[in-house]
Amino acid sequence: MRTRLFSAGTAGAAGLALAMVAAAPATAATDDMAMLSVLHGVPDLTVDVYVDGELTLDDFEPGDLAGPLELPAGTYSVAITAADAADDSEPAIGPIDLPLEAGMNYTAAAHLTAEGEPTASLFTNDISATEAGEGRLTVRHAAAAPAVDILAGEDAVITNLSNPDEEILNLPAGTVPAAVAATGTTEPVIGPADVNVAEGVNTIVYAWGSLEDDNLDLAVQTIEGLHSSPSGVPSGELGLAAGSSTAPWLIGGALLLAAGGATLVVRRQQLATANR
Amino acid sequence: MSRSTTRRGRAAAAVISATVLVLAGCSSTQDDTADAPAPVTSPTAEPEPEETRPPLPDVPVQSTDLEALAASAAVEPTSLTIPALDISLPIDPVGVEEDGQMEIPPLAERAGWYRYGASPGEEDGTAVVAAHVDSVASAGMGPFAKLMDVEEGDTVEVTLADGATVEYSVTDVTVLAKPQVTWPEVFVRDGEHRLVLVTCGGTFEREARSYTDNVIVTAVPVGA
């Protein structure tokens, strides 16, 4: 689900009108469109973001998330510069190519490598439907830190997660008391913090910052609208309210007491139900 | 990545026409050069076609703080009445059973509100409330045994946890064989707000311990 990015040539077509337009709050991309969010996970560095050579995000602050944007599928070149740069000729990160496929949902994250160097990763967000009653928790390691475990209470639910990898859990909807610890340990380096894994939502948690600089933190992104409906509504157990053909299995006095109501039900059922 | 050139070209063509739409909300043009056209001074100003410094797109930016993720606080429904049929029952929030079906309160005298969907009184989406027509725990039938007798135009009143009452008017009463019910069209999270009441009906299949049909009553907010 994750693609490591690399530098790829010069920025896109000069004179191209703004590429990242038509911002839309939709969740699932339609037809020939892709959804893109951009996360800033490099501490202490306010940046500008250029897309295909055009300034697209001005003074983008650490810990902020831009988007989602609905974009025509295609490859976009992104360069990230210091906030006071005049153009994208001397990027701090990139330029990098973001190949965005139709129907997919992505987050491009500027973050630190495990060793503390600024980099960028393109994550593909799982927008497949969740089961009724469940939410999805995606955990991404985007911090200058060694491999970690994710603890839910006392238990390690994800182990040995390394930068820039991710793990995905589908869970009953609810609040998870989550903490991040160095792998194999239980002493939190982040948290514990309550993470609301809402039903029908992909809740994406990024560990970002730097262990050495003591500024590790969590960033949270949510993608809604992934819910499924229950498969049925099983709202009767006895047959007391049943329509015709109930007679052979009468089970005692309860039905006799209910007979008056049942008569009405039968009449209505015969009117309204397709013949079975 | 090998197909990037042609796809980018197509993408560029597709977005140019949309460029003029993104001006509203731009707070500033930075680093003006001497010969640049005057910056947009009002968020509502008609944009001039610009050649030297196109405006920034209106990209929504949000914080990723965990605190912003607090569970949404819908006001829960607590009871429901249909005066025309003397139907009245308290409401419990419910979720999903292990088998993927909607959870229903064991007592037929209590209704369940699907807590992952809309709540009564919200602006969007469908609030689903269901109750057993009869149940083992109740050893008999419940108020929703009369649901099939509801008629178009009947009033449904839902009381919320904050004491408010939301009034609905019935627009449809349908009885469908269970395999024919398209539940994704019932449990809708967006679109115009409505209330859907569900129970069982039809004949009872003893081996499956299940009714053959679902009774589905749709109501819309009064005054909406």
UniProtKB/TrEMBL annotation, chain A:
Residues 34-150 form the DUF4397 domain. The keyword rRNA-binding does not apply. Keywords: Membrane, Signal, Transmembrane, Transmembrane helix. Residues 1-28 form the signal peptide. InterPro entries: DUF4397. The chain crosses the membrane at residues 247-266. It comes from the Bacteria. The keyword Transcription regulation does not apply. This is DUF4397 domain-containing protein.
TrEMBL record, chain B:
Keywords: Hydrolase, Signal. Residues 36-45 have a biased composition (Low complexity). Residues 28-57 are annotated as: Disordered. This is Class F sortase. PROSITE patterns: PROKAR_LIPOPROTEIN. It comes from the Bacteria. One of its GO terms (molecular function) is hydrolase activity. Coiled coil: none annotated. Residues 1-24 form the signal peptide. The keyword Signal applies. Pfam families: Sortase (PF04203).
